[in-house]
């Protein structure tokens, strides 16, 4: 994609019907709310974007600072007629882990949406594609509702994948244990903890957005946000269920490993018990002192071996009688 000046990834003028109006960076300084709702999406890895945002006098300094921050916790903060928002989405970029979540920060008021990012977020690209097809958000409130919905829908895919993964691991543990299974289970639990850490505050941010009496969010958009919030809560409940299943699976894995270790120790104990008297007798007759029985008898070694064999048989019969094996 061809880069735009000012570190812009997208610059769009919403036509209030789900599409775009003709708009360019050259007209940015002359833009007024009467022309339509404006969406600016800045790449903060570009110093030109940081400079442009830092020089804005029509945005609250607190909002500008939040837009430029490196990391931010999901939240909603009302500032005058606008709102400062921070959300997170799962990282679906190639070679990335889903729990390495990507943040997006927005300043939204009744006539514009200014968003910033440092890593690509597919949910934003989905909105841009929808706008190009005339099926996108119609205004700032609709933009926020659409983005929140798409973020949660992407999370649905990740949660479903985690559920499939824990099902596979459960089956592997029932069939046997391996080093790879233990590592996969530990990695799964780490991912769940990280996702849970970021999704919980996002739930609170969406709940605050639904409850807030923001004039540029219509009743239908508020209803859409409520449905999105409910879907996010279900995702969190599913994550909790996966986490509990992972804990139970790990307990089963540890139990099986302990059982295998006990079996090995038991076998070694039986072998040691069998060879203990044999070792004692051979050691006793192997000392280099006079008077060892049979030292002058050529058949003594065979007799001694026979005695050892009989002793082993008697021990095995005794262990079987005691049901030691």
Structure description:
A hairpin with a 2-residue loop joins strand 6 and strand 7. This protein starts with 7 loop residues before the first strand and ends with a helix. The chain folds into 2 domains: 251 residues, CorA soluble domain-like (Beta Polymerase, domain 2), CATH 3.30.460.20; 55 residues, no CATH class. The protein is α+β, with helices and mostly antiparallel strands. Helix content is 57%, strand content 13%. Helix 3 crosses helix 4, helix 4 packs antiparallel against helix 5 and helix 4 packs parallel to helix 6.
Ends: how far apart?
72 Å
CATH topology label of the largest domain: Beta Polymerase, domain 2
CATH class of the largest domain: Alpha Beta
Number of helices: 7
Helix content: 55-70%
Radius of gyration: 35 Å
The CATH homologous superfamily of the largest domain is called CorA soluble domain-like
Number of E-state strands: 7
Tell me the strand order in the biggest sheet. Answer: 2-1-3-7-6-5-4
The number of distinct structural domains comes to 2
Share of β-strand residues: 5-15%
| Element order: H for helix, E for strand | EEEHHEEEEHHHHH
**Which structural class do the helices and strands define?**
alpha+beta
Largest sheet report: 7 strands, mixed
Write down the overall mean pLDDT: 86
Inertia-based shape: rod-shaped
CATH architecture of the largest domain: 2-Layer Sandwich
Q: Ranges with pLDDT <50 over ≥5 residues?
A: none
Keywords, please?
single chain, 325 residues, alpha+beta, Beta Polymerase, domain 2, 2 domains, seven-stranded mixed beta sheet, 7 helices, rod-shaped
